[in-house]
Amino acid sequence: MASHHPIMTLDELTAFLDREFPQIHLGGRTYFVDEIGPLTARMRMDYHERHLRPGGTISGPAMMALADLALYAAILAHIGPVALAVTTSLNFNFLRKPEPRALVAHCRLLKLGKRLAVGEVSISSEGSADVVCHATGTYSIPDRR
Amino acid sequence: MASHHPIMTLDELTAFLDREFPQIHLGGRTYFVDEIGPLTARMRMDYHERHLRPGGTISGPAMMALADLALYAAILAHIGPVALAVTTSLNFNFLRKPEPRALVAHCRLLKLGKRLAVGEVSISSEGSADVVCHATGTYSIPDRR
Amino acid sequence: MASHHPIMTLDELTAFLDREFPQIHLGGRTYFVDEIGPLTARMRMDYHERHLRPGGTISGPAMMALADLALYAAILAHIGPVALAVTTSLNFNFLRKPEPRALVAHCRLLKLGKRLAVGEVSISSEGSADVVCHATGTYSIPDRR
Amino acid sequence: MASHHPIMTLDELTAFLDREFPQIHLGGRTYFVDEIGPLTARMRMDYHERHLRPGGTISGPAMMALADLALYAAILAHIGPVALAVTTSLNFNFLRKPEPRALVAHCRLLKLGKRLAVGEVSISSEGSADVVCHATGTYSIPDRR
């Protein structure tokens, strides 16, 4: 069913997300798909005060939303526009406090099955190699015919 | 260090969260601690369009934010106001699509150690027994003297 | 597809596990399904030196094997004998060191879908209410016709 | 406290594991630390019938035991021989059925903190690039003086 190579371009993927999930841009666009590759994707979340916790650090929920959206985008890029893929589980380890800067989510798909896709994400502050949050996620893929 | 009985009242806990995390009420108050008991807590998240996904369902990130906040509040209620307790890991299973209604998070603390607290949360739509999202979380507790 | 009530008896379930998974009894029978109820099951693992770590505590892998087997049995009891149900993910929190005694796994099924079943397990030492290990698991259910 | 470079050699690490965890070799030695590097380690588990499930596939619990041991060894290699480091949580995604062959666990440490170490593991069949099981784990590190 699924190839190891993306079948959507960056522009197609961005247009699909904008159309199907307009609410992620509420309050101003902060999510950007930066790159798609074989079983990989990279998404950026710009720094915005709505993502903050006191002390200037970026909130856990903001990182969780980024990880989920980035994995979802990575999967779509490889299986094509299927608005109904559904997150079934997510696991997060929070490793360091992120600085008040853009975050970058590096996704790697571990499995693209007929019914289930699984991937991992490492989130770092832009320009840093330190992982601030690591996540794995599983997504259920609807039957198609 | 930690008792099996809460040491903060509902009002004290609510006041603490309001003071330390004002940003959770951005756009209108939707989170309410409804009950605290021995190793348990219940938090409600009112229905609000900023928590939605297309189709009227409540978004995964909104449920994740609720689970994290509810567990955090449950722990604080039992160890006292420690703004620096830190989420170290979270695991989520998404079981059903929630209806466009208030969600209720039922927390149970499984461990209240000197350095680590662990709890689980079952989130249901208000008035329903079906769990829409189940989460477990671990929190690091700072040294105190 | 799945009812909230078990459709296998204790004896049928035990016979099925013995037939399909004889290797779990290698070195002597230590696993026993003790009870099945609506969306619940309880499995015991007797104390045996092959489950130990130095210091007399029961090893993490022994608890993980128990959790997986108990959840698997709980699901089978509710969907009928399907040897091909497959574990897709497991999450564990290790809360306390278990004493050198039998362990009891209390399972609760959170979802019994057509393709996916999800449950949680709390493992305690026999006769104790303290949870030593908590787990959640998801299982893929094969198509049937 | 912890360096990004291992401070134990392969031989020292193997000798430590043999001395502290003799029971992992019960029934014949199957675990071998193959390599240690900066924040990485690789462990092999040889094919043995005690790791099997019917159909010739390697059991989930055997993979979970390998992941836990490999992460534990990777952490020890970087913080020195601390027999009391304790697994606090583990998360597994099972991606494919492993073939009846040796498994190789590739570990990467994501965090080596004063109190907590976090790492991920990708397990593949020897000679294959396909990940059959992915795990993340967190380990509590005892206070030292």
Automatic annotation (TrEMBL), chains A, B, C, D:
Signal peptide: none annotated. GO terms for molecular function: acyl-CoA hydrolase activity. The chain crosses the membrane at residues 69-92. Keywords: Hydrolase, Membrane, Transmembrane, Transmembrane helix. CDD domains: PaaI_thioesterase (cd03443). InterPro entries: HotDog_dom_sf, PAAI_dom, Thioestr_dom. Residues 55-128 form the Thioesterase domain. It holds the Pfam family 4HBT. This is PaaI family thioesterase. It comes from Microvirga aerilata. The lineage of its organism: Bacteria, Pseudomonadati, Pseudomonadota, Alphaproteobacteria, Hyphomicrobiales.
